[in-house]
Amino acid sequence: MKVHIIGGGNLGVSIALGIAKFSKNNQVTITRRNTASILYLQELGITVSSDNKHNIQDADLVILTIKPYQVDTVLTEILPVISNKTIASAVSGLAIDVLQNKTSQEHHVVRIMPNIAAQFGESATCISFSEKDRAKALPVVTLFEDLGTAPIIDEKLMDAATVLGACGTAYALRYIRASMQAGIEIGFDSQTALAIAAQTVKGAAKMLLEEKVHPEQLIDRVTTPQGCTIVGLNEMEHNGFSSSLIKGIKTSLKQIKG
C-alpha cells in the first residue's frame, strides 16, 4: 500500500514511524510545509515533502492528520489532482458525511483516531466508516492493527474515542509522573522512580489486555486484608482519584463537542 500522510506534526509522524517499523510492504510519504524537523524520517525510507500533492495521485491511502481549520485549504489543493481515493481522516470533530460532501462524494472516507503510541506499535486506533465504504475501509483497519489495536466503532462515539484513546495518553502519563514524584519522596532517584512507575503501568495494561478481565479482578490479586495496597487505594479514593479522572474525561468531551 502506498500511504500519503498530509500533516507532519506529532500524530502524522507517529503514524509514519509506526508504518515504517511495524507494517510490511508499504511505502510512506509525509508532507509538511516546513520539513526541517522531519527530514530524519528519510533514513527509514519515508519520503518527506513540503508539497501536499507530491506523488499523491499514486497513493492508495491518503491520511489527514491536520487541524480542523486546515481541512478546506488542503482539500482545495489536493482534490483537483486525485480521484477515487481512500481518505482516512484523523481530524478531530470532522464527521464522515461532512468530509464526503466536501469531497463531492467522489472518494471513500474513513474516520480514524489513533494516538502517538503508533510509532511504538501500541496505538489504540478507533475506526468508523459508512457501510458502502467497508471494502475500502478494511485495509485501513488491517494497517492500523499493525500499529496496535484498531476497534471498529460507531461514528457517534468517535469524539468519545478521541478523549479516551488520544487525550487518555496524557492522562496516563500524568499518573506516571505523579507516581514518579511519589517515588522520589519515598527515597528513589528520579530515573529509577520513573522506570518503576512506567513499567508497572505497562505490566498492568498488558495483564488487562491479555486476560480480558475487569480491572477490579486484578486489583484483588494484589490487595490483601490490612495490607499497604488497600490503605493506599482508599486514601486516593477519599481524595477523589477516580472521580477526578472521570470528571476530566467528561470535561474534555464537552470541549470537543463545543
TrEMBL record:
For this protein, the Enzyme Commission number is 1.5.1.2
Q: Where does NADPH bind?
A: 52
Q: Does the keyword Oxidoreductase apply?
A: yes
Record-level GO BP terms: L-proline biosynthetic process
* Record-annotated membrane-spanning stretches: none
| Parts forming coiled coils | none
Q: Which domain of life is it from?
A: Bacteria
Name its pathway. Amino-acid biosynthesis; L-proline biosynthesis; L-proline from L-glutamate 5-semialdehyde: step 1/1
Q: Which UniProt keywords apply?
A: Amino-acid biosynthesis, Cytoplasm, NADP, Oxidoreductase, Proline biosynthesis
* Record Pfam families: F420_oxidored, P5CR_dimer
Instruction: Output the Gene Ontology cellular-component terms.
Output: cytoplasm
Principal cellular location given in the protein's record:
cytoplasm
Q: Which family does it belong to?
A: Belongs to the pyrroline-5-carboxylate reductase family.
Name listed for the protein in its UniProt record: Pyrroline-5-carboxylate reductase
Give the organism, scientific name. Answer: Flavobacterium hydatis (Cytophaga aquatilis)
Query: What gene does the UniProt entry assign to this protein?
Result: proC
